[in-house]
Amino acid sequence: MSDKSPFNLRPTGKIRPADPEAVFADLRPRDEAVKHLWSHQADILREYHKKSTSRDVALELPTGMGKTLVGLLVAEYRRRAFDERVVYLCPTRQLAKQVMGHATSYGISAVLLVGQQRAYAQPDYARYAASEAVAITTYSGVFNINPRLNDAQVMILDDAHSGGDFVADLWSLVLPRALQVYRDTIELYANAIPRSLFMRLLSSDVDPRDRLETYKVPTQAFLALTPALTELLDGSLQGDPVYGWRMVRDNLAATHLYVSWPALNVRPLIPPTLRHQPFSNTRQRVYMSATLGAGGELERLMGVERIERIPVPETWESQRTGRRFILFPSLSLPPDEVDELVRQAVKVRDRTLVICPSHPQAEQVAEQLKQTTDAAVLFSPAVEDSLTPFTEHDHAVLVLAGRYDGIDLPDQSCRQEALIGLPSALNLQERFLMDRLRAQVVLRDRIRTRLIQGVGRCTRNPRDYAAVLLCGTDILDFCLRRENREGMPRDLQAEMRFGLDNSEADRVEGLMKWLNVFFAQGSDWAQADEMIRALRTEFAQTTDPIASELMRVVGHEVRYGYAMWDGDFVTSLRLAREIGDQLPGDELRNYRAWWLYLASAVAGVLATSQGKEYVPLSSELLERARAAADVSWIRSIGLKAGGLRGQEQDQLTVIAAENIAVRIQELGLTGRRFEASMAAMREQLGSRDPETFHAGLASLGELLGFMTSRPKETGNPDVIWRLEPEVAVLWEAKNQAEDETPISLSTARQCVGHMNGAKGLLQLHDGEACYVIVACHRMETARDAVAQIGDTRAFPVTKILKLAEAVVHFLRRTRARAGETSDIVSIVREEITTAALEPRRVISEITATSARDIAEQPRPTSGS
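RESULT FIELD:
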C-alpha cells in the first residue's frame, strides 16, 4: 500500500497549540467516552496558562476530579508548544502504568519508563529524548543517585504529597534493626539516649506501644561522634543503605539522627532537592495534589522556597465524587471490639482496602486478619504493577502502609475500606515532631491532606459509594475537633458529622447493622443520604488560622535547610533565629522553641569551628528555647540528673504530663474504654493474686506519668516506675500476704537485692534517685528483718487504692476539658497540679515511711 495521500497536501510547519485546552481539542485518537473537559478542569488549565512561565506551580484537584487528565494535558502542551522534554512522576509503578493507560486512551503521546534504568526500551527512551513523547515514570526514577532521566525540562509531580516521602528518601539513611550496624550505632550514642529507652532499643521483647517511640539525638551529641560514626558506617554498610549513606555522608552537620525500635534514620530536616540537577535544571515543575494546604507543607516536602498555587475552582463541589458512609467504631467500642468489627466487615464483603500509617502496624493488622478470616491478605508487592490481583479476587483484603493517595478503586472493584490509626507520622522525623516535640499544628495540614485523600480511595465518580471505617482513638480525637474538620471539603465534613452522630453502639453487631443498611442502598439509607446532603449546607471549608503564620516562615525554613547543607552556618544561624522570633502565640510555642534550639545548635557548631565567641550565644538561645518549650525533650537538653528543682522548672511534671496525655489519647477522649480501663485497674489493685495486682500497679504508674515495666526474671522487682533522669521506684508487692503478716526477713533480703542490682538492671544515671518500696497490708516489719531491710520504704495497699481513686478523678476532669485545646498536655499539667499528683508529691508520699521505722511491736501475752 502506498503511503502517498490521495489529497493535495501543502507543506506546513509544526502546529503549536496556543494553550492546554487547545491540546485537548486536537487529541486524536481519543476515547469516545472522553467527550469534553469538566468546567473545573478547564478553569484550572486556563489559570495554569497564565502561570506557564513560573518555575514552580501547584495545581489542586480533589480526589476523583480528573487530576490525571489535567496533568497529562499540561505535559503534552509543553511538549508540543515548546519541544520540551517532559517527565511525569508517579509514586509507584502501578500508578505509572495506570497513568500510561490514561495517556493512551486520551491520545497523548507517552512512553512508560519504569523498572531498572538499563532495561528501558531504547526506542521509548529515544522518543522521550527527542521530545516526541512524555516519559511516565516513578519518583525514584528521577530521585536516585544516578538517574538516566536526568535532563527533563518540565517535570509533572503527581500526588505530590505522597511523592514527598520518595523525594526525601534520596537524602535519608535508614538502618533497620535487623542489621548489626543498628545496634552498633545505638551503642555508639548510648550516653546521648535516655537509659530506659536505650535498653528498650536493644531489647527484643518490647511492648508494641513502645516500638513506636522516637527520639532525636541532640545535635551537639550527634555531631561530636560523627567521625566515629563515619568510620563505623564506611566499614559496615552493604546493600541498599549504602546509597542513602553516600548522599548524606559529607553533609552530616545538616542532618539529624532519629532512633526508634524498628529503625534508625539520618536525614536533613528539609530535602535539598535543588542540589539534585535532574530536579533543579528543569524550566518548570508542576505539582499536583488533591489538596495543597495553606501552611507551606508542599514547600517543606519538596525543598522549594516558593510554589505558586492554583486552587480548585469554587464551583468544583457541584461535581460530587460519590458517597462515603464513615463510621468511628472507637467512639463506643474498646480496641478488641474494634478489631472484631474490622474482622467481621472483612468477612462479609468481597474486597476491603486497609491503610495503616506504618509498615509495622500494617504487618500486625495483616497477621490478625490472616488468622481470623478466610480472606486472601495482599500487600503492596502484589499490586506493584496492577491492582488486578486485588480487584479480580473473590474475597481479599489489601493492606497497605502509608498509601493514602494513588489507589483508585471505583465502583464494584472495592466498596469498603478501613483507615487504622491517624496518618500523622509516616517517617521518624514526623513522629518526632508529632510525639516528642508536640508540634501537631505544624503537621495538621499534612494529616488533614492524608485523611482527605485516604477516605476517597473507593469513591471515584458521582454515583460511587463506599463504607469507610476510621479506627483508633487517635484518628477519632483528630476528627472530633472542629478546627481539624473545618479545612476539609463540605461533603466530607457532613459525612464525618453524620458518622460521629451514628457511631454509638453497645456491641459490634450494632455497627454491622448500619453497614448492612448502607450496602443495601434502600429506602433507609436514602433517608440518611438526604440527611448528609442537608448537613452539607451547614459547613464551609475554611483556612486554618495557624497556616498563614507557617506560610510566612516557610521560605526561611527552606533557605535554612540549604544553608546548612552548603555549610554556610552563619546564614543558617541568622535564619533559624529569625524563624524563632517570627512564630507567635501559644499554639506555636513548641515549634518556636524547636527553631530556637536549632539556632543554638548551629551556634554550637560555629563555636567549634570558628571560635568560642559563639558559646554564650549558643547558651542564650538554648535558654530561650527551654523557656518557650512545653516539651521535655528541649527542656532536658544539657541538664543533669538531680539538676531539676523548683516548681517553675519541674521537669518531672513536664515529662509525666506528656506521658499521661499519650495514655489519655490511647484510652479515648470519648467512649467507654476509659471507664472500663479505670474499673479494671481498681479491680486489679484490690486482688490478692500477685500477677493481677502487679498489672494494676503498673497501670497506676502509667496513669501517673511514669514509664513502667514488669521484669520477668526471678529476683527482680515486681513493678518498676521510672521518670528519667531523676527517679526510679522499684516495687516489691506483698499483696497476697495475710493482713496480719508483717514484712518478713526474706522480703527484706529481696528488697536489699533489688537496691543493689538496680544500677545494673536500670543503668541508673549519676544522681538518679532510686527507691525500693514494699506494697503491703500490714505496716510492720518483722523484728528479725529490721536489721536486714536497709533503706526500703513501705506503703500500704489501702493507700494505693486511695491514690488510684484520686488518679481516676483527676483523669476524668482532664478528659472533660480535652475539647478546649488540641494541646492536651497543658490541661494535664494544670489538673495534675490542682490534684496534687505531680511526680514529686507522689514520690514524697509513697516513700515517706521507712520500713526500719515500723518495727513489729511485741504482742501482749494472754493473762498479762
